[in-house]
Amino acid sequence: MPRSIEAPTGLSMFVYRFKKSLQTPDPYLTLFGVGLWLFVWWLLCEGLRVDRFDKIPGPVAVFSELFSRIPFQGISIFTPEYYEHILVSCRRIAIAFAIATGVGVPLGLFMGWSKRIRDYAFPILETLRPIPILAWVPLSILMFPGFEAPVIFLATLASLFVTTLNTMLGVDSIDEAYFRAAGCLGSSNWDVFKHVVVPGALPYIFTGLQISIGVAWFSLVAAEMVSGDLGLGYLIVDSYMNNVTVPMVIGMITLGFVGWLTSVMVRALGNWLMQWHVKALALQGR
Amino acid sequence: MNVSVPNFEEVAPSMTVSKSRGALSIRNVTKIYDPEGVNVMAVKDCSMEIAAGEVCMIVGPSGCGKTTLLNAIAGFHSITYGEILLDGELLCGPGKPKAEQGAERMVVFQHGALFPWKTLAQNVAYGPMVQGRLSKSLALEKARDMLAEAGLGSVTEKYPGEVSSGMSRRAEIVRALINDPKVLLLDEPYRAMDALTKSIMHESLLETYDRTKVTIFFITHDLEEAIFLGDKVHIVTTRPCQLKKTVNVNIARPRSYETQSSEAFRLLMEEVNEAVHEEAIKAFKAGERELA
Question: What predicted TM-score, i.e. pTM, was given to this entire model?
Fold first, then answer.
């Protein structure tokens, strides 16, 4: 009987890949890149104390504050405020991203699929899209009560445009042959939508979602800076106003890290949903 | 040379006598793209009779309108004049310019159209499932059986992107056959393949044909392929597409790869080559794309 070799799955797969990647230069290059970046930052702000940069906190100041039990300027990983800011921002992002995806994906799918729906919606979308999110701030404060709703509205709006447009382009990208094949095989309109339009557009949808969650983060922070009571954007601007620069930089680094994490989560979900796509790309060596 | 309107009495009895199905009548079909605008005539007064269970090969220069004819039969495009009948039933004709798409006419596409997001088994099971003929689990079961029969038993759970082009093309033919079609419409399905893969594809298609006796409408510009596979080779003119000459391939089935080195094969090759070459030169002079 031929002996079959089982492909590793789950955790063992992860460990295998991790070990394998240690044999390539990639992780070391990444470490070197991060190290170089920190070194230049340190050199400018703390090592050489270059003019004007000396007012900016360097990496030593920032990280010793970040990991200090009694932070001098009020924010570290041991203060509950730090997590409150993160949590508030993440909650807003989760709501905004969920609304934008829930509306944007179906809207984009229908716009791509039906010429009539596109004729209705596309001109409006294209007119609203170039308006910068910051320009919406006054209007959103007038439209919605409190701090929460306007901020979420702004983040939703920004990511909605990206998601809708990418989804629509995703439907456009589907080869006509798949529609014809589906027709030949006796599909109803609903079958075509379910089995051709949705899965065919999925790679574009997830590219769009990765961009859209990034866009949601930066419009959220902009909104929090203008109108907010809590959140990472508020932390940054509030620290600046109160002349405490270390929490400002801590806020920025945290924002970058959390933003990257959410983007990774979206990508992982996409890869899990599109095994066929991942496998095809893997065979092309990508 | 133009072919006159076919004699209907000649056609009708053969359909009733024969138990097999899938007789196609293409009668005086003309297709003009954009009648208001540029007026490109792709097909002009083209008539062909394809008997039930026949392998009919359509050969002509690239861009001559062969695919237009196939699209009209499949129901992807409308026709301007004429009519197309399947087993005596009107597919498209006066008052009904575009045929409905249906599972009795299955198309196998030039570049392949297996859904890349479904496994081979899911692809094959798709037709019976959406037509409501089989439940999902039964359809999948039958799909796996049929794939195994076609020598694809080990890759039923793979996605099309993971298997070779030859395998995915064979799976596509299985996806068509599971619907028990009357006609298989193939549009240069082996165009992009190397000679070795192609020869395996040919033997596999012949084996399938010998088993099912389904009518095959096969577009190609590979002359050896046309003679090796076909009962009849219809040579069509450069745009607008018209029937130029029909060559009967009197080589017994089952055919094997050695057939291609026989004397009968060589003679047919000469006959077809001459007719096609004439069209190729015309196409070239007309500034059409070269005969690939």
Answer: 0.81
